Amino acid sequence: MNKFLFKSALAIFMPVLVVSVFACDKINEAASKSEPAALQSTASESILIPEKPAAETPPPAIAPASARPLPADTVVSVDGVTLKKDALNKIVQTQMKLYQDRIPADRKEEVQVGLEKQLTEDFVMRTLLANEAKRKNIAATDKEISVAMEQIKANIPPDKSLKEFMKENNVSSDDIAMGVRIQKLVTMETGGKTKPTEKEIGKFYADNKDKFTTEESVHVRHILVAIDAKDDEKVRAEKKEKTEDLRRQITAGADFAEVANKNSDCPSRENGGDLGKIRKGQTVKPFEDAAFSQKIQAVGPVVSTEFGHHIIQVLERTTAHTVSLSEVKEQIALYLEQQKQAETFSKMMTRLKKNAVIQYGKP
Fold first, then answer.
1. In this structure, are residues 209 and 39 in contact, taking their beta carbons and an 8 Å threshold?
2. Does the domain at residues 216-319 carry the CATH identifier 3.10.50.40?
3. Would strands 303-305 and 358-360 be described as parallel, antiparallel, or unpaired?
């Protein structure tokens, strides 16, 4: 078995990808939430830089006393299937290169050690699952693999091809096939009974009703004339006057999006200055105060912040309200179903590890 990288157990057997998009990085303080808090995803990427070193994870099983010591070049053995140090090191180095721009120099050693442990456990998990699927004669058909790929494709940005996405995230067709097989294993474990009942859906909604709320938000677009810390008073005044002139052009009939595209210093200029919907607490205070007090479609007075001078227009306003059960029923059902599958998967892995012979080599 020469391919053993998992993105995560759930990402493999339920190939649903969440893509977060945020607008102007100088204005937005956080990415916008599109779902009620009770349904937000907690999925993580395969390699993250932890705030603190993760706690040591004990081996999932203890090899019998009669087991022979592993050769020096072996990292782990799972029911006789081995992972060699050279193979592990090769993929660790590939991953380190892939994420090198995101890893601080003083934490590379820490991240590498954590990655080695993670990939070792991924190998153990994949081997156990592959063996179990083989024992139960579970296979993935071409049609099932195609359907899984389409599910992934439906959840990635439209400007990115499935091939590009899979390459960037180190996901192969073999991983997709394994995901299908794992899904079948989980279905077999549950007897196909993972769909939540109406009562369960209703209870979840009632228990979390305070979280099924949408905060007040405004859909805004803006034009930014940026200022620099090195700008003297004269330059700042000139930039302020430039912003006032741009505002006069718009109020006189010029197209806001065109003026933004040609003059704004914010990356949102590519979208005509559109920042999408923002909530309170996401932007700097002067910008927020203006955005939440302006009338819809009005081109407000120039607003100055630490980033520069802004011309703001509010396109839409959404008041805070509680989302009805009918609006989120399908989301809750999917969430509860995935929770049941995750619990079943966890129990299945515990059983497989308990019944397997897993030996770890010396560092």
1. no
2. yes
3. unpaired
